[in-house]
Description:
single chain, 22% strand, disordered C terminus, binds S-adenosylmethionine
Amino acid sequence: MPSADEIRAAQRATWGGLSTGWEKWDSVIMDQLGPVGAAMIECLDIAEDHQHLDIASGTGEPGLSIARLSPQGRVVLTDLVPEMLAVAARRADAQGVANIETQVCSADDLPFDDATFDSVSVRFGYMFFPDMGKATAEFARVLKAGGRVCSSVWVKPEENPWTTIAMQAIATEAVVGPPDPDGPNMFRCAAPGYVGALYEGAGLRDVAEWDVGVELVTRSPAQYWEMISEHVSLAVAALQQVDEPARERIRANAIAKVSAFEKDGKVRVPGVARCIVGTKQDASGTRPREGARPANAG
Length: 298
Ligand SMILES: C[S@@+](CC[C@H](N)C(=O)[O-])C[C@H]1O[C@@H](n2cnc3c(N)ncnc32)[C@H](O)[C@@H]1O
């Protein structure tokens, strides 16, 4: 079992290497993940002057969208990996978003005072943290009473063909072992209630979760393969194990499979994410914004 330091070092190396792919494929990735960010933002009740913390911000979402909704507020974009935050800062500049700052830190050790933020978001970051319980306790600590945290994770692989098509093609040529259930991997938090239990353990209340559909849209099967093989952590790692002829066979296999999803001149591959929201109680145990749960929460 790797130590927390070893997990962080491996994550730094992985995401440092993926940052170029994430910047190159920015618009395709953001279109795919946009509905999840929108669902998260809806339940965070963002005010014009919100102090917001975005964890595992990567290239900046949903933090940058929240900064636009909170022009008198401030959004702190945090991530373990400086290369990812450098992309976020370039995207903020390009979009004219100035009320943000970036801070390199690990989710389980936040450099902020208690009760600093009105809300916290974590889009597709949870599954990579060395200690998810400790990270959740940190989110609860830095939230003000009544503040909410909303995160999103991927549900099981069978409901996410946008990534399983590529992984099945890779498995025809490379050894892709079962992921360590206790180590970072894309589907580590897929079980219903998994993140909710972490929230409850950290004292968050009014916990609710609901699923959100996504669609990865590319111009062609070839473009699907190009973008997946340049930005999905599992695929990039597995492809490093094989030689060029094997990579070419994997590419052909993935392209053939994804062609089944061609529709109206585009390739549209579905997936499903889960959003989880929770609220920090105030000292008296009441929930200041009780009743304001998202309409679509289960
Ligand atoms: C899939 S990306 C998500 C990026 C962004 N939130 C989005 O949805 O577009 C996952 C991010 O988690 C970050 N990460 C991994 N381990 C972390 C940790 N211990 N603390 C904070 N961020 C971490 C990675 O560097 C990467 O940027």
